[in-house]
Amino acid sequence: MCLLLKVKYKGLFQWLLIISVLVFLNGCNKKNNITYINLALNKSDRLRLEGKKEEVISVNNEIIKVSKEENYKKGEALAYINLSNIFGTIGNYKLSQHYLKLAEKIAFRINDDFVYTRLYHEYGQMNYVIGLISTALKYNSKAIYYGNKLDEKGWLLGNIYDQRADFLLDKNKDSAFIYYHKGFDVDPSALNSALIGNYHLRQTNNLDSASFYINNALILLKKKDNLTTRPGIIYFYYAELCFKQKDYTKALEFYEKSLVILKKTRRINKLPEVYQKVALTYKKLNQFEKENEYLTKYNQLNDSLNKSGNEAIDISTSEAIENNNSSITKHSTLYLIIFLSILGVIIILFFKYPKKQKNKDSSVPISEEKTSEIRSTIPDEYFTELLSLAKNNDIKFLNRFEETHPTFFQNLFKHNSQLTRSELSLCGMILLGLSSKDIADFSFMQHRSVQIKKGRLRKKLNISSDVNLYNFFKTLT
Fold this sequence. Notes:
With 477 residues, this protein is an all-alpha fold. Helices cover 79% and strands 0% of the residues. The protein contains 24 helices and no strands. Helix 2 runs antiparallel to helix 3, helix 3 runs antiparallel to helix 4 and helix 9 packs antiparallel against helix 10. 35% of the residues are buried.
């Protein structure tokens, strides 16, 4: 009997030992996986700085997969934020915002200060890029709040302070200067020193201070920075300093060094300004063929970037035209009859009503009656300014509109938070009372394209065709 019990307990002990080993190994495996995720996140940061966008996307998709398997929510949220950043840099703001929303859902559940800091930092940058400066500053304030709670602040808080300085630069240069210094205080890096130097170069014209900080940046550059975009930016600032000092040969040398790095790290959006400055430098050196060569490069790339920034219309317009062309091919006779009927009605209406009454048509400039109605809700100086910005297709229109209508976009985002910059501008122009023809003229588009954009806007905001867009937007102010 005792022998039987001994055998029984021995077997039980062996099973317990096996289970303990398996639990231990599983724990070690989970710990190893989390370590792998954290290393992969560091790798993602390095690849981002090196401009390797495809690799960044691949690494972060893998991080999300492993994080989900291990239920490691922090890793998953940070990977979503990384993806948001990379898609934002290539202009896909809809997808960028999608990933931020996924990260936000997780952030509210895990309550992690580092995740909050990264999330609000990215939200700030996103809103700044699409022109909502006031909203960007609010998110930036949240990023600063959570960033100051971190044990290791370093580059992240420094970057957030620099971001705030950029946001404030056009309106409050003194505050911007303070935040550039705050950024350098928490992260005395080469780039942050160069940013202060560039501030003096452009804002105070103090060449001594500019020279001190930019030369200091060159000293602070480390070997590991050579694989990132940072030297490209610092070399550009140094070239600017040389240009101010009228050392055009040296300026050209560093502009070209900057171009090599910016191309290698695929910072395409920074190239037009460098091309423009290289052209100006060649002009100073009386090398006019080279000047024209770089002016051509500047114009071509700048036009290309401007077109890609207007992405809200190109895809939908192409699809609509393709669909219509296909439909016309199939039903050409029917469309011809409809076209002739509409043409007949237009001709009758044209001769029936005096020209003075044409302002009732939605495709002509806004009427005095409607202008008066709009002015009653917008102070004269704001209305005139906004109308002028819209007429000149000025990129400041959206930012100024947000300032004069602080709740409009917030209420608009409740209906759809994924509106593009182009769509937000369209909403603003409609609220100003501009007709489709006005918008087409001011935005250098065809009237048909504006109508397509309006149709797409109705779909995104779930507004039926019988609801007047102007009246709907008026309820959101």
